[in-house]
DNA sequence: ACAATCATGTAAGCCGTTACATGATTGG
DNA sequence: CCAATCATGTAACGGCTTACATGATTGT
């Protein structure tokens, strides 16, 4: 239940509207925490009611008004408290792994279908890795001159990069194995 | 929503009661799909109503009766159909990553607390890797003599092993970085 | 005696997804 | 003119977690 905390971190890095937050969750934050705009709006209202965030109505010309949220004192305190609590292990849900083991109980044609599926996954992971590497060059051009905040952001990004490299290597392994089984 | 399918795969590999399934989800299957016994019982009842699984009451001496489930024809058909549908990308929820970025907005003491947390995580991932490697030696002593089902099981296990190796390497990176930031 | 294991369940509540709705502006 | 973007929301449903409940047996 860390959506509140992910939102607080994002607002501390940069105040913004619910809409802007939703876009950040689609882009950078979505690397390690996903959320739809409906979730974000609902949680923002609750956080505002609890005094965790402060909202300021901002009139815009040519666009609808927006409510710009920023992290408030009680929100920072809640974040600090949460930081000191242990987190439980992440629950794993790996559909592709279920499919691979399921393929043993289907006819050989299922292996062929699974190969196409895995190829699609491989492509999307390769694209994600490319985006990470591009973002790294753009946001961290000089790795020897980072402040603490950037160091921590880059640390998380490195995790994403290594995760995707591992994924690609494993998916190559999966493809080689499935092709061997499909042809043999 | 692949819990049904994960259960079907498990029952195809070996029929069993809800309780036994829950234990498998705690052990081997939990590597790529988690579920509590409450979820499993509820889904099993629905699957039985839909004819996906067949239940047989088994009386035991000294223990409560149990219902042993096995995958039925419609269940296998549903699994085959699901295998041919594309899966969406997994949603990522990485609490530790949120905490690392949150640490930038707390006092330095938070970094120290986070280091202990990461050390705990490192230990549990190291233990998991050791269990995977041990299980690999036990269940797949001769990698050149595997049937298709075992090949696919080993493929998934290799994914788990590489995932944990990647995790360990990244957590070492995290510890080194946090310690440098905490002392500097 | 006590804890652990076997075996199954109810109930409450939050979380998350999906679909739908509104209404204005900008760019092709 | 149509699609996309900006901006916020309601409603319904189902999934998942947490807490609680029951009751017997085996091992220390």
Automatic annotation (TrEMBL), chains A, B:
The protein, known as: PadR family transcriptional regulator
Superkingdom classification of source: Bacteria
Boundaries of every Transcription regulator PadR N-terminal domain copy: 7-81
Transcription regulator PadR C-terminal domain boundaries: 92-179
Record Pfam families: PadR, Vir_act_alpha_C
Record-linked SUPFAM superfamilies: Winged helix' DNA-binding domain
